[in-house]
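How a chain folds remains the central question behind the approach discussed here. For one protein, we set the task of working out the structure tokens from the amino acid sequence alone. The sequence in question and its structure tokens are set out directly beneath this paragraph.

_____
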Amino acid sequence: MTRTQAREILFELTKTDSLRRHARSVELVMEAMAKHFGEDVEQFAVTGLLHDADYEKHPEQHPGVIVQRLREMGEDAIAHAIAGHYTKWNVPRNSMLDKCIVAADELTGFIIAAALIRPTRLEGMDARSVLKKLKTKTFAASVDRDEVQKGAELLGWELRELIEFIIPVLQDYHQELEL
């Protein structure tokens, strides 16, 4: 599947700019992870782009609708990764794709939330400030802190390392992401 095809599906199922922007930010982080680990860049990017595609239209069935659609298209690896992009769903994470989507999703959203309250947004943001915000349970309370930690662990990284990996990716696209 190409990113163009994935964007068509995303725009069909997702209407809000905020969820589309989240999908784009996770796409960018997944692309960077694929390059870092020597994996399939397009496959990783598409997974990031579509991981929450059905959330807005089918919240009670998420991620089942997009997973089923991807399986019908023969995109089994992407479907499997999306089916397990939250560790509490108990889907085994066998591949680097499966692990990276967990590592990218919650933390990318959290970093963006932290940037949005800063006067300089992403400019000058560092891992220390993100780690401090993670300790504030009332800030971005819907972000599962355990999931953030598990994402780093799946990659064999310290949480600080993962944050330090994600921030520059987002900084490179700060204008597009309105950060």
Observations:
- The chain has one domain: 3-172.
- The mean pLDDT is 97.
- DSSP finds nine helices and no strands in the chain.
- The radius of gyration is 15 Å.
